[in-house]
Design a protein that fits this description.
Strand content: 5-15%
Function: Catalyzes the formation of L-homocysteine from O-succinyl-L-homoserine (OSHS) and hydrogen sulfide.
Structural class: alpha/beta
Pathway: Amino-acid biosynthesis; L-methionine biosynthesis via de novo pathway; L-homocysteine from O-succinyl-L-homoserine: step 1/1
Largest sheet: 7 strands, mixed
Protein name: O-succinylhomoserine sulfhydrylase
CATH topology of the largest domain: Aspartate Aminotransferase, domain 2
Distance between the termini: 62 Å
Number of helices: 15
CATH superfamily of the largest domain: Type I PLP-dependent aspartate aminotransferase-like (Major domain)
Bound molecules: pyridoxal-5'-phosphate
EC number: 2.5.1.-
Radius of gyration: 22 Å
CATH class of the largest domain: Alpha Beta
Number of domains: 2
Catalytic activity: O-succinyl-L-homoserine + hydrogen sulfide = L-homocysteine + succinate
Amino acid sequence: MKPKEHQVMKKRHQPETEAIRTQINRTEFLEHSAPLYLSSSFVFEDAEDMRASFAEEKERTIYSRYSNPNTSEWIEKVCKMEGAEDGFAFASGMAAVFSTFAALLNSGDHVVSSRSVFGSTHTLFTQVFPKWNISHSYFRYDRLEEAEALIRPETRILYAESPTNPGVDVLDLEALGQLARKHNLLLVIDNCFATPYLQQPIRFGADLVIHSGTKLMDGQGRVLAGITVGSRELIDRVYRFSRITGPALSPFNAWLLSKSMETLAVRVDRHCENALKIAEFLSSHPKVNWVKYPFLKTHPQYELAKKQMKAGGCVVAFEVQGGVDGGRTFFDQIELLSLSANLGDTRSIVTHPASTTHSKLSPEDRLESGITDGMVRISVGLEHPDDICADLGQALDAVK
Ligand SMILES: *Cc1c(COP(=O)(O)O)cnc(C)c1O
């Protein structure tokens, strides 16, 4: 059984407060900040304690593949922010995605998913799950009637990300929740781009919410991590699969992440403020064909984004003039920003999805996911927005 050693607060507070004040029980030293529990295993009081612990008659820490105090603290914070009952933490976002599907699906099952999913998730659907006779069908993010037509008797999970990567399209979470309930499916949402601070999919009917903690949750480009949260019953299935197969998060990474959660709200507020400024700057630049950002009024799902998100997130997508050549010139001229595949870092990052993260998709699938050859994804960081705009501006000026 998973331990509940957290210091449970009687009164519920605002999410920002929960992210700061949720803490595992203090040790005899009465430390203010939670210590790091780098211990693979935990000891038993006596033979009876050992027997009862293994028989799952008590909730306690046994082995860090199952649970660890630092990991539990991070999970508890994410659960409180997402409005979830329980969770399990993983070594990476992809470990969370894989283990969640693998725990809940059997051979012969089918998944209906938005086509606009993270590149490695797409590879899971197309290359890994077929090995176990688990199939999928894709719908376009803005065509839920298409999704409904794809549902079969063996469909178990409805899956989506919102906002999407890298196109920052917004899916209607409430409509997805209704569709899932109507057909008795589990709605699983990858909420990585929004973070639990900006959007809580469970409020709109999601059964499970997945995050890559690697992105805005750590926010400083230091660790890989993943998490799945939801009802106690579903998480128990994810937990039973995962404690055997071993994708557990390292306590050190959990400790870092738990500290990062204390600043999540202030960091994400600034990321979003900067991102909106950068999106507005790009909108008026003559070398830019189009700009997409959920909280930009020109975004096709602006109203929907406003309804389900607190702010637009850190990712801005745009297209440089001149196709592939324009894109190359732009990337080679960038000075301050990093050319990297990560996102949600304090440092602003520019990526070319068509040649990197989404190169495994067929050209047709790329276009269906809104990824054109000249598309650039910026993960807007916490540098001064004037400096970010100046770097983007000088690189764009070089484009013919
Ligand atoms: C990065 C990412 C993942 C995978 O997370 P890792 O921590 O890199 O394994 C999954 N989904 C989305 C939306 C992501 O951005």
